[in-house]
Amino acid sequence: MIKTEKVLHLKSSRGRKVRVVREHYLRERVPCFSSLCQADCEKDGKVLPGDLTHYVVPDAEVVVNYLEVLEFPELQGIVITQTACQALHSKGRRFYNRLRNLLKDPRHDCVLFANEFQEYSYCPREKGESQEKWQTRCVYAAAVWYYNHLAGLMNVVMITEDEEAVSRFSSLNSGVFVIRVQDYLQDFWPELKAAHELYSAITQVLQEKEGEDSQREFSEHLPAEVLEAGIKSGRFIQGTLNVSKHRPQNEAFITNQGLSTKNPGAEAPLRSSLVLAEPAPPPENPWEFWTHPSSRCFSASDLSSGVLVFGSKSRNRAVHGDMVVVELLPKSEWRGKVTALTERQVDEKSGDESETKAMPTGRVVGILQRNWRDYVVTFPPRDGTQSQSRNSQRILVIPWDRRIPKIRISTQQADALQDHRLVVRIDSWPSTSLYPNGHSVRVLGRARELETEVQTILMENCIHVPPFSEAQLREMPVNSPENPWTVDPAEAAERRDLRETHLVFSIDPRGCEDVDDTLSVRSLAGGKLLELGVHIADVTHFVSEGSLTDLEARSRATTYYLADRRHDMLPAVLSADLCSLLGGVDRYAMSVLWELDAQSLAVTKVWFGRTLIRSSYQLHYELAQALLNGKEAEVPELARLDPEERDTKLTELMEALEKLTHIARHLRAQRDRGGALELEGVEVRAQLDEEKNITALVPRQPLEVHETVAECMIYANHWVARKIQEVFPYQALLRRHPPPRQELFSQLVDTAQARGFAMDTRTNKALADSLDRAVDPQDPLVNRLLRMMATQAMSQAVYFSTGAQPEDQFYHYGLALDRYTHFTSPIRRYADMVVHRLLTAALQVEQGAEPAKTPAGNKDVEELAEHINNKNRAAQRAQNLSIGLFQCLFFKERDPEIDPRCVADGIIYAIRDNGVLVFIPEEANICLVCRRFLVASLLYGVKGPVYMRNKEGRVVSAGPDGTCEWQSGSVRRYTDHIITTSGSGSATFRLSGQNSGAITYLLSHPQVRISVLSTNCHADTLNLEVISNKPHRSAAPQLPSSQGRQLVQEVVRLAEEAQEKAVQRPKLPREEREFQQSKAPNLYSILEEIRELALMDLETASRVCATTA
């Protein structure tokens, strides 16, 4: 080891330059991480393969500017030097973390070489040498060392953008080649067009950045040291910028990352204990900015609703999702939220809209962390007003997400890609530009096409679900007719065998194949005890921690369910086969068994462990409920038995279901006494066919057996949470549901009060009791809507590490449990896989053995929890957007003026200045389904605005029969109703009771017409327009159930015939082959066939179907 010195030139907190001299140690043995190494270097972690033609060593400048190109998995054998890594770190933590993730990902052949600690590759900086030249020299020295260290067995290519370096170093060593990035791509990867296009786009952005003008459009951000000091002193506030979906040009809010405490009345203040209300004028020296005193201050509890940032200037180049620092404006400049519905883009200076009470308002003074991602954009439509050339000049593209500002990119294909959606990345946003600068990454496809729109939804939610790779599939066990999977005798000996002792069965939705939970119940000790068992698929037996499949599952974090497809977290051989607890086959499971007193149902003993089970019955919900109700029902597993044996086994099954229901009722009553909430959600389930394709999303019909299964799963999750938290008190993955903020219940309280119901929201128990009492016998939708509004007011349940929260924060508000986690669905949730591993380790610790692998620490578990939380939120958003897409597709081809299915009943649940918010329940659904694509339940749970005054200033006027039309007039809003006045009189729309004239009341039922608003750059949206203030019943003919099924069967048959013909169609493009998991015919042809058949009377439809048969 050789000791030397390293000189650093840093800047102090006061802005002074400081020269720092540090000891620097050089070593002869530094790992090279190559499989060709002849010097026996350590090879912990990834190792570069030896079957490549060359290794690639990128220059520091290439890593800093072209990291996206290096991320292509086709580029293999990449050696990132320590010099380049440190250069990237100076660019920002976001880029540095991106490189770290790339180096840790085993799917990419790249390693980190500590060249500055290697004795023979270290290059001290020469006097007068620029940092860029020194970095290039260091990287070249590392490339030469690599070639010599591997004894010339592997050529090394150094890629750089420095022409001088190419001419200087290219001929010094025969085995080390120095070329430009562009030449490298052209010579070695000519077919990798995406990399070529990305390189060109980045290069053009870098060239244009050098020529930017100096006219300032925004104020400069304060230095990081000033921001940190201002936050600590209370002058500044730190939080996440959330741009309003309804007024993205004007309104944005600063919200805190923290969550509420267990006390329902407690608030979650922003990151500031004392906030200064009247900021003094900024001093000339920004380093002294935070030291100026303030004349007035107030506590952070006044900021419980967040801080408003009004206008793009105050936003100061911050983008939705950025972690920002804001300074409050004087109270005289505070504003409130606009209370009117937004129908158009409004100017920042417009003051004709009423606002709520003034709230704290501020301006962004700095950005702590950029959270830029990939954005889907579209070119603006061609018109004569554009001041930009559309050939090789910079174009302002319009993001699909309205909350993102326009992005300036450079392209020569603006005309060719006019109607396409592109993926772009933001590179920078200097203070001299009104818009951020970016570059295009790839083309998604033509706008308005189904596959493009689905990929847009996935991309906008950062969901990446490529097909499982061959390497991942090679890790999977084999189960085929030629080589069937069987239980390993050695593994069976380590497990508790329940195949002959327990009656195990599953209860799932009809057609479900990913059965990850089963149940059992039996009597013990002569009937004095009951044993309840919950058995969960043992996924972690097949998926080793750290394997490629595990890393992919961790990256996805969940299975993604869309309207027409699903993207599994695990390969199908696990999710639909070996980890699915199907009936009549042996399966590995993780089980929880409770011994309960038969009278009191108190727990006397609990057992956790790995088991071997064989499910006897695979029931669906409707069948299980029929058996519980004593109805005649055919159990498929008993169909071939003789009558006597069938009756015996059926009686045994029914007794087990009755015991299970009895226990579940007791468990539910226990939680109800603790304040558990029964909330209403717009819940639909995927209906699958024999090939696991989604045929429809249908509303879940409430059955007691649903609650029975749910209670057993909740009970298992609760007890597993207790176990892993007791053994690992500071590193267990649990799930908490924070109490909601009280101000979020204001709309619920006002709506309930309009019908005469009082809502007590102080505790979960009080809220549950209030919802139970809020029942209108004349209108059952009232209670359901109130429960849905209560659900919307709730904060989201989140995963967390027990070492990151005090124990009183573990509470689950909705379930009324002190500890909770997810254990019961490891096939579709990665969190459950983590919990399975923790439970296994906990059992090993209790037995006095060392865990096979030490559980992750608190910091790692908390990072994983945050990742899973983000992915779960993305999955929920993508599912909602997907359903909205198909809703729009269904109504887009219909004429709303004449099609009776475009008219439905709504229920008003909120009043605004210029309109109302309306919910359309599932009773208004169109009851048609077709194979693999959603047509049924398209209208399930639609909510949206209904305008009483449009942008032309005209208002809704109702005639004597309730029919509405647009006339000139005015609108006046009250607490529970809204009145429109026109030349023909006034009308009221109420929140409760019946509407009269043009007065609208809360919880009343107007008729609405449904149409589609289409834009080329954004997603289509449903438009709701009131046509009558009196209730409506659909005029569409109601098909008898048998005839309706015949119509569905004909549509399915036609779809199958079209699919057979599709075999002869041209080969699908790569995007469809890789990402479209459904193999259905074209959606539009199916919808067109459905539309034509549905508009015919039954006799005509039957003749048409008979003709085509």
The backbone outline, from C-alpha atoms, is: globular
Give me the number of helical elements.
28
What is the spatial order of strands in the main beta sheet?
20-27-26-23-22-21-28
Cα-to-Cα separation, first versus last residue: 85 Å
The fraction of residues assigned to DSSP E strands is 15-25%
The total of beta strands comes to 43
Can you give me a brief rundown of this structure?
The protein contains 28 helices and 43 strands. Strands 20-27-26-23-22-21-28 form a seven-stranded mixed beta sheet. A five-stranded antiparallel beta sheet has the order 12-9-8-13-14. Strands 17-16-15-18-19 form a five-stranded antiparallel beta sheet. The protein is globular.
Structure notes:
- Mean pLDDT is about 80; it is low at about 255-295, about 345-350, about 385-390, about 680-685, about 690-695, about 925-940, about 1035-1085 and about 1105-1109.
- This protein has about 1100 residues and is of the alpha+beta class.
- Strands 20-27-26-23-22-21-28 form a seven-stranded mixed sheet. The protein has a five-stranded antiparallel sheet with strand order 12-9-8-13-14. A five-stranded antiparallel sheet has the order 17-16-15-18-19.
- The protein is about 30% helix and about 25% strand.
- The chain is globular.
- About 40% of the residues are buried.
